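Please, is this right?
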Amino acid sequence: MTETVTRMISHTLRAARRAFPPGLRCFSHTSGGEIIEDVFDWAGSLRLTKQASLYVHQWPYCLRRCSYCNFNKYIPRKNNGHIMTECLKRETETLLQFSQVSCITSVFFGGGTPSLAHPSTIAAVLETVSRQANLSDKAEVTLEVNPTPVGMSKLEDYCRAGVNRFSIGVQSLQDEDLKILGRDHSSHQALQTIEEARRLCPGRVSVDVMFGRPKQSIDSWENELSQLLRVCDDHVSLYQLTLERGTQLFKQVQRREVTVPAEDVTAEMYQCARRTLHQHGFLQYEVSNFARHNAVSHHNMSYWKGRQYIGVGPGAHGRFVLRGEGGVAREARTQTLEPEVWICEVQKRGHGTRRRIQLSHHELLEEVLVMGMRMNEGINHKHWELFSPQLGLHEAFGTSANVQELLRSGRLILDDRGLRCSWDGLALLDSILPALLVELQRLSETTKKTSNT
């Protein structure tokens, strides 16, 4: 999941910086492992440094690579499950000791295909967390599941190991589409896995489904949603298929062997899904996520609310404040991508961190803004003040001509509750965020000039 979150942030910030007018300097990121010094004390609450969620890129292996995927995953060349488990335990212990975290609020096991891992790996990591920090018996512990017979056969054992929520990568209920996507399950197997997961964790099962797939039409998408809603639990995640350069599907589209729906068609598919899910009692609480009976993903909410998270495993990302270095600025960490190299690094020094960047106050605010605006509720004033005690939302954005235009158009709302998108605006978030980020950059430059005079 952290891979997806980091891509969201990077994609949006790149788009916004392209919108910066000439002469407005963009804040630069370092590309190496050096630390950028920043003395701004942004921590308005001890809770920001003492609590964190934990993401475990626990099984970076897949039996085969899907045609659309360019995530950090590998085809295993040998069985190194025991070594991987020991290294995940050690890195979890090391990074928790590096941090100021005393309470883990949620755990998410992602991949790769984490449902290929033995349940004992899950149990071992959770036991390690419990030795280093407080992990409540009620904390949300999610495992991504590939809906194959192998994945389904382990669900009960995963629950015994400590998992209490499943996220099932259904992607499609059309067998022909699953073949095009390179998935190794059938629609029947997906339905069986959903049923078994709901039996074990009623009310705590999420399904991932993808739209904008090759040859997909609005009518077929509506039919598929109807079928999904007859079997799904209380959480649905919608993702538009993205053609990633270098993937098999990207090459097939480039060679015109496969066609994907036009942009206006995928936009209508998204709106169709929003309406349909709403009619069935689902609240859209984030751009891509829908829940009923308050079955939101608490782990993902921690990302969108700008809270700390620790990333363990090959290619994982994290954001947390270090212990004992005298500062309170949050550090962005990226773990080594290649599993075998990562294993060697963890065995040698206890962790496989490849890159460390201390986030400036401005960079932190950018992330809080980008992630917070993805939520239906947006960013309330109290939450913003935790990160920006000197400058409220009205002062930061209320006087901007571009923001005023968004407010007048009804796409954006700034009131006593805070800053958020309207129903129509949430579907256009990518076009709204650049204006907000440009204004944040202007304020950063103005503040810097004022402090230097």
Summary: The radius of gyration is 22 Å. Residues 17-44, 62-76 have pLDDT under 50 and may be disordered.
